[in-house]
Structures are given as C-alpha cells and as structure tokens.
Amino acid sequence: MQTDRNKNIRSTWKAFVGVPLVMGIVLSCASIGRPEGGPIDETPPRLIGSTPKLNATQSTRTKLRLDFDEYIKLEKPNEKVIISPPQVQQAEIRASGRSVLINLFDTLKSDRTYTIDFSDAIVDNNEGNPLNNFVFSFSTGDVIDTMAVSGTLLDAANLEPIKGMLIGLHSNLEDSAFTTIPLERVSRTDSRGRFTIQGIAPGSYRIFGLQDVDQNFFFSQKSEMIAFNDSIIIPHFEERTRQDTIRIDSVTIDTIISRQYTHYLPDDIILRAFKEEYGVQKFVKSERLTPNKFTLFFGAKADTLPTIKGINFDETDAFVIEKKITNDTINYWIKDSLVYKLDTLAMSMSYLYTDTLNQLVPRTDTLKITVRKSLNKDTEKEKEEDSSRRRRKKKGDDEDDTPKTVFLNMKANVPSSMDVFGHISISFEEPIREYDPAAFHLKMKVDSLWNDVAFNIEQDTANIKMYNVYPANEWKSQGEYEFSLDSIAFVGLYGLHTDKVKQAFKVKSIEEDYGAIFFNISGVKFEHAFVQLLDGQDKVVRTRPVVDNQADFYFLAPGKYCARLVVDKNKNGVWDTGNYEAGIQPEEVYYYWQVVELRVRQEFEQDWNLTDRTLDRQKPDEMKKQKPDEQKKRRTNTTNRNRNQGQNRNRNF
Q1: 29 membership: H or E segment, kind and range
Q2: From the DSSP assignment, how many helices (H) and strands (E) are in the chain?
C-alpha cells in the first residue's frame, strides 16, 4: 500500500511540474519582439496638426499644441529647444502621447514672428528616430517673417566646432547692445557647430555668439565665451533651381524634374568664439610651507612684480625670485639664514589692484607670513640620530658613525637615445648659487678613443632651477657620447653640492630614424606667423616660424601629424585671444586640411593655401574632439538593432 501511495504522489508531482515546464519551453520559443528580418522603422514622426496652425498669423495664444502621427518623446528639451524671440521666463515644454505641449509664460510681443526650434529633440517612442531641424512658427502680426541666416561657429584657438552655443541677432547696431540688451532672435549650434536663425524681418543686423552662463541673452560676464562679426548682416534671398531625380530602381532613372526654391542668404557666416582674458587683480594669499621660501598668489596675470619692503628684515638682495610668465604666482627664496629662521616675516607689499570701477590702482598691504613646518624639525632629527649613535656605541656596535654626505638633489635628463636636435637638461629643487663649467665633461667616441666635445650651458628661460647643455655644433648622427659631472659641479642656494654623474648615450640616425615635412604657405598676407606641428591628439610637437612663406620641420619621428598656423600679430610667439570692448578679434588660426602619415626617410613637401578651404572645412575630422551627433546615433542605432536581432534569434530557437 505504501508503494502504491508513493507512485501516486510521484505521478501527481510530474503532472503539476511537467505542464508548466512544457508551457515555459513553448512560450520561450515564441518571439515577443519584431520577427527577425521584419522592416525596421526609420521614419521620423510627422506633424499632422497644431493649435495654432503652423505659420498662423494674428495668434496670441501662449499655450500651444503640436500633434504627430505616432507616439513621441522629447530628448533634452531644456538643452535643445530654443524659442525666438528669447523668453526671459523659461517656457514649459513636454511630451504627452502623440503631442508636444508648450506653455509660454512671457507676454507675447506684438507684430512679431515667433519660432520654436526643436532641433532633433522630437523622436519617435519606439526607435528614437529624430525629426531633424523641425521649426514651428507663428506670428502675432499680419505676416510671417521668413528670412534666415546660417553659418558655423568654431573655437578660435583650434577651429573645433562648438555645440550648444547661443547665436543671436541685434537690429540695434551699437556696440553696447550686445552688453546691455537681450538678443532679438536666437538659435543654437548643433554638433557640427552649424546654426540657422529663422523668422527674421528684412533689415540690417549684427550677429553674435554667446555662451550664456546667466541666461540673460547678453554678454554680461567675462567668463562667457563670445563671438562677433565685424561685418553687418543683411538677410536676403534668391530663387534657385535644383534637379530632382525620379528613379525606377537603383540603376534606372525615370524622370529628372527641375524645381525652383527660395534660398536664404547669407548661408556661410563663420564665427570664431573666444574667451577674453579676465580676472580681478587682487592679492589672494601668501604661503610659507618651508622656512626658506614663501609664495604670493594673485588673482590675475600682471605685467609687473609687487614691491616688497621688509619690516623685521632687510629686503635688499634678500631673495631669489622664481615666477611664472604671468606673474600671478611668485616664489621668494630667502638667501640669508638669519632671515629664514625668523618664525614670522613682516613686510609691506605694494601692487596694482582692481577697484570697483574695474581700474588698476596702487595698493599696499601689510603681511605677516608664518612658516607652517617647525623650524627645528631638522635639528630635532639630528638630535635623534646623535642619540641613536650614542646608544649603539654603548652597546658596542661596530657600525661606522661617520656622517653620510648629503648631496643636492638633482635630476639629470640624459636620454639614452638622443634626438639629433635634443639636449641634456639638469633640474633642481632649489635655485643654484653657482656652478663650475670645468666640472662638466662631454665626450664623443671616435674609433676607440673618447674625444672632448665643445658645448654650451644655459639656464632655462622658463625655469630658473633648470640648466640645459647643448653641443657647440650639432650632434653627430649615430654618434656615441658620454656626459659626466664632477662633484661640486653645482652648489645650491643653501650650500649643498651635487654628486658625480656619468651617463652614456647614442644619437639617433638621420637616415634611419627620421622624416621631414616642408610647407610652402600662400593665400594670406601677414608680417609674422608660426606653424605648430601637431600629433593626433592636437598637442603641439614642434613650432617653427614662417620665413619667406615657408615652414620646415626636420628630424621628425615617423607618425601622424597635422599642422596649425597662427598669424602672430603682436609678435609674442603665442596665440592671443580677442577683446570685444576694444573691437579686437582673436588672432587668426588655420589648419592644414589633412593628416600627414610620415614614414622614415620620407620628405613630405606640400603647398598650403590658407584660404582654399573655408575655416569650417580645414581641421581634419579625425582631429576633431566634437563628433557629429548623427554619427553617434548611427552607431547607437546599429548596436541596438544588432542587439534586438540577436535577442530575436535567441527567442526563435
């Protein structure tokens, strides 16, 4: 009986478990998605109605409704959607089923065309297909203004497209309008830096770019990136004809139809965006991390150094001054031990200060600078070491008690494989009091003998704690060299000297390790310019001045290079930004239009006409950090499509 009972229980268990298991297998084999091979929806949403109607006139509605033929959603509406004339109070824009609902909180202006530029913010709910460049317009007056201007905005320093920057027009042609009055009609740049401002009335305008940090639609903060055009913009149009081709299939043409259309101009405006040099000149703080050095920090770069007057010490020849080129961070190395052993340094400091009227005026502050670290730290350490030695001596340890020589910390950069244009650099943690040229030795191996080589020693122009060693003549290709320093070659500011150094190295082969690039430059007249050779990350590899319209780069390692030319108007050897108040545009920058892949022994010579391509077509696409959104979306859609198809295949086993 018990056996029969067990059999019944086993049968009941199999019945209850087996049925769901079979149903699960059947259901799992059914596809719950799009059947594999079915058509993929690539059609964007389509506007089928609106309140008010598209391009309606005499409309005073502040609540708008746009209806589409499928369910939609909005992507980043606060970032992508822009209303013109600009709204002081941000409008409410949201998706609801198949509709977009817009609530305008600002009072509508009379006799004005309103445009709502959605860019690509409207996408269908399923596949995310964007409705590109969609603009909804209506007018509070009797007519719809239809003029439009377009162009491209680039970073003035590197011709990089700038996405999401505000572009606007002013019919007020005064310079002060941009800094006091909100822009009248606005748009935003897309991922390629391109923009189109629509709904413009006939007239004359000035055009501006603005990184509107405080969202007041005018240039009010020096930290905002801006752009301006020196020319007046006059919107106009012309009738053009295009050829539309009707095909029977991908090979056979059925009909070619000529169609007329209205083209709005100008359509090729180039704006170069920049940030002005700004910063309130003020004293920020002082810092004394070690007894022998203190640092002064200022809020902006300055043309002159502050004047120091000691109160509890004599400031005459008291310091070795180490400064940045901008003079906003200054290190004062104190020479006299009697001074740097003072717990507190009292001094007066005179400098230029930015007042409330934004003018530089003289100012004097009294400073009391206290060292952070204990002045007796090293002494205490020495006492501990002496005490430890005495304890070891009492125990009878045979350890050598001779004090170890402490050398001046030094870093000698001597590449084992030296470039033919390279040099030896020696850097320190403190300024150098003196050095002995006779303690330097540079030799070259000739056959089996080491012969002395003439050389020059120079303090680095940008770093007073670095010294560079150059051969009097050029390094010999494939030559074997040896560089050495005797002890006491350098003596630091505080008396320590360097230890011995010896390093062998070999110079690279001109024939086997290098190529060269030569540019013949034309198209733009300038007095001074320089060319920067760039790597694939847009970083400067080498800089050469333009001489007789040529820029030559010798001894280049094989690799990929691009080039940027800077018109150096003020002859200071660096790119300089602009200034709106002074009407100064940033210095012009041009890119060589292709990436050069240089091989060993190759000499690449190229004519470079700076104006044969517009600025927006000069920088190679592979060099641009700002990639077009459509490329990103294409990659995303392909990935999603492959993922969906893979899931469908797994379901249909």
Answers
A1: helix 2-29
A2: 7, 44
DSSP secondary structure of 96-145: ETTEEEEE--SPPPTT-EEEEEEET-EEETTT--B-TTEEEEEESSSS--
Q: Which residue has the tokens 């060099």?
A: 623
- Count of CB atoms within 10 A of residue 398's CB? 7
d(CA 508, CA 480): 10
Q: Are strands 603-609 and 515-522 parallel, antiparallel or unpaired?
A: parallel
Give yes or no for a cis peptide into 431 (omega within 30° of 0). Answer: no
Q: Cα torsion at 144, 132, 77, 139 (round to 10°)? A: 10
**Please, are residues 225 and 208 in contact by the beta-carbon 8 Å criterion?**
no
Amino acid type, 208: F
85: left (phi over 0), alpha (psi -120 to 50) or beta: beta
CATH of domain 47-251+264-273: 2.60.40.1220
- Mean pLDDT by runs of 10 across the 653 residues of the chain is 42 42 42 50 91 96 96 92 93 96 95 94 91 94 96 98 96 96 95 95 97 93 94 96 81 83 96 92 95 95 93 96 92 96 96 89 96 57 60 58 83 95 96 97 95 96 96 94 96 96 95 94 96 94 96 94 97 95 97 95 95 96 87 52 47 40
Q: What per-residue string of b and e applies to 149-188 under the rule 16 or more CB within 10 Å gives b? A: bbbbbbbbbbbbbbbebbbbbbeeeeeebbeeebbbbbbb
pLDDT of residue 264: 96
Q: What tokens does 245 get?
A: 């081709």
Residue 310 near residue 340, CB atoms below 8 Å: no
- C-alpha to C-alpha distance for 553 and 532, rounded to whole angstroms: 10
Whole-number pLDDT of residue 385: 59
Which residue type, as a one-letter code, is found at position 502? K
47-251+264-273 and 514-619 agree in CATH topology: yes
In Å, how far are 28, 462, 519, 550, 633 from 606, measured between CA atoms?
64, 34, 5, 10, 36
Residue-level pLDDT at 22:
41
**Fold of the CATH domain 514-619:** Immunoglobulin-like (2.60.40)
**What does the block give as tokens for 69?**
């033929």
Which residues lie below 8 Å from residue 467, measured CB to CB, with a gap of 6+? 425, 426, 427, 432, 435, 457, 458, 459, 460, 490
Contact indicator for 367, 286 with CB cutoff of 8 Å? yes
Q: Rounded CA gap, 463 and 427, in Å?
A: 9
| Residue 271 phi, psi (nearest 5) | -110, 135
Cis-peptide into 235, omega within 30 deg: no
Contacts 24+ apart (CB under 8 A), 309-315: 309/347, 309/348, 309/349, 309/350, 310/345, 310/346, 310/347, 311/346, 311/347, 311/348, 311/366, 312/342, 312/344, 312/345, 312/346, 313/339, 313/342, 313/345, 313/346, 313/347, 315/347
What is the torsion angle, in degrees rounded to the nearest 10, for the CA atoms of residue 420, residue 426, residue 431 and residue 435? -90
Q: Where are the domains of the chain?
A: 47-251+264-273, 284-370, 410-511, 514-619
Give burial (CB, 10 Å; 0-12/13-18/19+) of 445: middle
Q: Count of CB atoms within 10 A of residue 416's CB?
A: 8
Q: What angle is formed at CA 525 by the lines to CA 519 and CA 528, rounded to 5 degrees? A: 75
Strands 410-413 and 424-428: antiparallel
The second-level CATH assignment, the architecture, of 410-511 is Sandwich (2.60)
